[in-house]
Amino acid sequence: MEFETLVQSRKSVRGFKKQPVLRATVEEIIEVAKRAPSSMNTQPWHVHVLTGAPLEEVRRRNMEEMVAGAKVKRDIVSHGEYQGVHRGRQVDIAKKLFGAMGIARDDKPMRQDWVLRGFRQFDAPVSLVLTYDRILDPGAVCHFDLGALCYGIVLAAWDRGLGSVINGQGIMRSDIVREVADIPEDEVIMTCVAMGYPDDSFAANAVRSDREANNDFVRYVGFAD
Fold first, then answer.
1. Where's the Nitroreductase domain (predicted)?
2. Is the overall model pTM greater than 0.85, yes or no?
3. Residue 51 CA: distances (Å) to CA of 6, 124, 127, 181
4. In which element (H, E) is residue 166 found?
5. Could you give the domains of the chain?
């Protein structure tokens, strides 16, 4: 698949088939994605691939802790709640998703169910937990590098018929992820990628987020035209 077509067709998948994902397929995806650029070729990343019983334990405990009112415990520093234009875009995609799923504005049980799906990593059969070496904190540069790796994973997966969603909700309790996956303390848990074969009957999978016009965020400097 040509790169432009691949990028434009890729979308977040929030409903997965129960079909398992083979380890060999994930290895192939990572083999491609690891060619992502990193600052001075430092390659600061680690990938912990979970499935089966360990993944089920992570999602169950993460969901139970968050429902019980536990505080978020992520390794990275959060920006807090979005405001202004960023909040507006967040609300816009939520409206699209809830509309596709038939979730009314005042339907609190269904809205809560949607949140719980996020905590469960949308019941995907595989989760790739992305970490970086703690010695590199404060980590703006290595965060950028992990973003490149992450997008490489998502595109390589889509090219092989697998859908993904980059899912911070799934690691709200990073301490649980670290314990279950036996992630060393010298690694910082950045995010996770929930992955599996898309369920085309799941309405939210057809939703695509809007993108701003280039003129709203791009400046050209020094061009003759």
1. 8-197
2. yes
3. 26, 9, 7, 10
4. strand 163-166
5. 13-207 (3.40.109.10)
